[in-house]
Automatic annotation (TrEMBL), chain A:
Pfam family for this entry, one: TctB
Provenance organism: Marinobacter salsuginis
Keyword presence, GTP-binding: no
Transmembrane segments: 42-59, 80-104, 116-136
Domain of life of the source: Bacteria
Ranges of residues in domain DUF1468: 8-141
The name this protein goes by in its record: Membrane protein
Annotated keywords: Membrane, Transmembrane, Transmembrane helix
TrEMBL record, chain B:
Protein name in UniProt: Tripartite tricarboxylate transporter TctA
Keyword Transmembrane helix: yes
PANTHER family reported in the protein's UniProt record: TRICARBOXYLIC TRANSPORT PROTEIN (PTHR35342:SF5)
InterPro entries given in the database record: DUF112_TM
Segments forming domain DUF112: 20-440
Lineage: Bacteria, Pseudomonadati, Pseudomonadota, Gammaproteobacteria, Pseudomonadales
Transmembrane segments: 20-39, 111-134, 140-160, 172-188, 208-225, 260-283, 323-344, 356-383, 389-408, 415-445, 465-489
Keyword annotations of the record: Membrane, Transmembrane, Transmembrane helix
UniProt organism field: Marinobacter salsuginis
Stretch forming the signal peptide: none
Domain of life: Bacteria
Length: 148, 508
């Protein structure tokens, strides 16, 4: 069972390839009648190649890589959540606050002490904000800090 | 002579204060990125693309900036090899062999200086090779028809897994996935909506800049979180420069050999900089024989691989500029930039966008001089940077990637997409699916489909046209070899590289 990763990947790709290829056959014939090369020709070829590739992966899988378990899997999830929440809060909270929180949390979870972590976040957020807004005149959202 | 005239025009483009400023900035940032362990040239260029975009730089300036970053990153890679025995990227691996022992003997300053000079020599030789070879190849490529182009694209995919790629099937799968992503959106020839599921944001297809930044930068962050390698390093003592003129003169033949070998392996599809530095080092060891002290801090052991990998980085630009087929991951990212600037790379670029091509080539020459000048006095600064713990640096780099993407479209939809690509990149890298063919598939997919269509229309639907001409047939054969050879040679090469590393047990 040491090659589970590739087998699952192969299965996933097979499903993808079949769905992708099937979808290509459903498109209506383009105006002017079917030609040698329609919109579906190229995708159909790709689907065939991918089916072959995915079958190979399932039949002859490589040994598995080390997958993160326990704590590092948890930390990975945390970083991912931070990235998604950062995106979510970027506009409402504004760039500086959101970035301070995101960079700070990431540094902290990677092993920095909380205080220097959030300070780094604040500092880098302010520097980038000033640089982008005033130096390069590309507006980043000011959010809560907006001066009316 | 004609070439020389173009080159002069190129210098006129590259030497304007505006472009020069960006070349300098790029060279500096590139070195910075290169010397940070974990961030290679491909990541560096990927992160800066959005910036070049949002600044609305003119095409030649944008390309000059990114090429300078590319060259700079190749320069920077050696710093962590010499001081920490950690190669910044694969090509810098061979530099560890003699660079780190030199540093241990208190000759770090000498190793850094001589490797900077070797990088310069390699870069210069590579660029001269590029100047001589590229126009010839571009002329030759003008004879290509759609069928030849289709075969050429296959060749590019087949060889991009590279000599060090492990499983050719995974390269094929990766390329197919990339091309599949490129088919999302409205089909240009018929107007059929393909795989958009009615989502408005998908009508124009998936922006490959999102994919590139996500796959490279975000997945790098996730990998770092998992391995948590970093507490930062103690500041290394660089020591005094004791390099003598005699030693420098002694390394000149090494620099020449390394640069030429590197250039050749850079031009060859799929070989790239890793092979360049490896064969330069091995050849040098054989030429010098027992007189050398390779592995114990022989100065030529630092010069050869550095000249080799910098020669290769210029060599890799040859197929990219002339055929529109990149020879390495980083040149694939550069190609992405060209395509998004609405410039079709390939032979026609030499006539239609001569100012850009020659401006970039001239900028490479200037960049190499800038890098040499920058690297010798600033080496202390870059060394200090190495002692900044990555747990502070990586989040900042990630944030810069977010800012870059956000500034292009001001849409958070794109950011979610980028994160999704990052997660996909993480899993694919774990499963040893190479990322570069995915990017290349995304980039070349539309061109490939267009050429397939043209070829089949011209032949009235006869598929054999794809391999009818001797040239197309030749390309198919080379593509086949490109898939099979890494399978045979790759493990051997990797074993050799690892064996060479093991020969010198260095205490970390």
């Amino acid at each position: 069972m040491t090659s589970l990763g590739d087998r699952i990947l192969g299965l996933g790709l097979l499903v993808l390839a079949v769905a992708y290829g099937w979808a290509a056959q459903q498109w209506p014939e383009p105006f002017g009648g079917a030609e040698t090369v329609g919109p579906e020709t190229f995708p159909t070829m790709l689907a065939v190649v991918l089916v072959a590739g995915s079958l190979y992966l399932m039949i002859k899988p490589d040994p598995d890589a080390q997958w993160p378990i326990g704590k590092s899997a948890f930390e990975l999830m945390v970083s991912l959540v931070v990235l998604v929440v950062y995106t979510l809060l970027l506009e409402p909270l504004g760039f500086v606050i959101a970035t301070t929180l995101a960079v700070g949390t990431l540094s902290w979870r990677m092993g920095a002490a909380p205080k220097p972590a959030f300070l780094t976040g604040l500092l880098s957020a302010v520097v980038v904000f000033v640089l982008f807004n005033y130096g390069l005149s590309l507006s980043l959202p000011a959010g809560l800090l907006e001066v009316q | 002579m004609e070439t020389l005239g173009f080159l002069m025009e190129g210098f006129a483009v590259a030497l304007t204060p505006y472009n020069l400023m960006f070349a300098l900035f790029g060279a500096f940032v590139g070195t910075l990125i290169g010397c940070l362990p974990g961030l290679g040239p491909a990541n560096g260029v990927a992160i800066l693309i959005p910036l070049a975009f949002t600044l609305g730089l003119p095409p030649e300036t944008a390309m000059i900036l990114l090429t300078a970053v590319y060259a700079g990153a190749m320069y920077g890679g050696r710093i962590s090899s010499i001081l920490l025995n950690i190669p910044g990227d694969e090509p810098a691996m061979m530099t560890c062999l003699d660079g780190y022992p030199m540093a241990q003997k208190g000759r770090a300053a000498d190793a850094l200086a001589v490797s900077a000079i070797a990088s310069f020599a390699g870069g210069l030789i590579g660029t001269i090779g590029l100047i001589m070879l590229a126009p010839v190849l571009a002329k030759f490529a003008l004879t290509f028809g759609p069928a030849e182009y289709f075969a050429l694209f296959l060749l590019a995919f087949a060889t991009l897994g590279g000599i060090t790629g492990k499983n050719p099937v995974k390269t094929v799968v990766a390329a197919t996935l990339g091309i599949m992503i490129s088919t999302v959106g409205i089909d240009i020839s018929t107007g059929t909506q393909r795989y958009t599921f009615g989502v408005l944001e998908l009508y124009e297809g998936i922006d490959f800049i999102l994919a590139i930044v996500g796959l490279f930068a975000i997945s790098e962050l996730l990998f770092f979180v998992e391995s948590r390698m970093g507490r930062g390093r103690d500041k290394m003592n660089v020591g005094k420069l004791t390099l003598t003129m005699k030693e420098l003169v002694m390394t000149i033949p090494t620099q020449l050999r390394g640069g030429v070998l590197g250039f050749i392996s850079g031009v060859l599809p799929g070989a790239g900089a890793s092979l360049g530095s490896f064969i330069s080092y091995t050849l040098e060891k054989q030429v010098v024989g027992r007189k050398g002290k390779f592995g114990e801090g022989d100065i030529r052991g630092v010069v050869a691989p550095e000249a080799g990998n910098n020669g290769a980085s210029s060599g890799a630009l040859v197929p990219m500029l002339t055929l529109g087929v990149p020879g390495s991951g980083t040149t694939a990212v550069l190609l992405a930039m060209l395509i998004s600037l609405n410039i079709t790379p390939g032979p026609l670029m030499f006539t239609q966008n001569a100012d850009i091509v020659w401006g970039v080539i001239a900028a490479l020459l200037i960049g190499n001089v800038l890098l040499l000048v920058l690297n010798i006095p600033l080496v202390g600064f870059f060394v200090k940077l190495l002692s900044v713990p990555p747990m502070y640096l990586l989040p900042i780099v990630t944030m810069v990637a977010f800012v870059g993407i956000y500034s292009i479209s001001h849409s958070t939809f794109d950011l979610y997409f980028m994160v999704a690509f990052g997660v996909a990149g993480y899993f694919l890298r774990k499963l040893e699916i190479p990322l570069v063919p995915i990017i290349l598939g995304l980039l070349l997919g539309p061109e490939m489909e267009k050429n397939l269509g043209h070829a089949l229309v011209l032949s009235d639907g006869d598929w054999s046209v794809l391999w009818a001409s001797p040239l197309a047939m030749g390309l198919w054969i080379v593509a086949g070899l490109g898939l099979i050879l890494p399978y045979l040679i790759g493990p051997l090469l990797r074993r050799r590289m690892n064996a060479a590393m093991k020969e010198n047990p260095v205490s970390d």
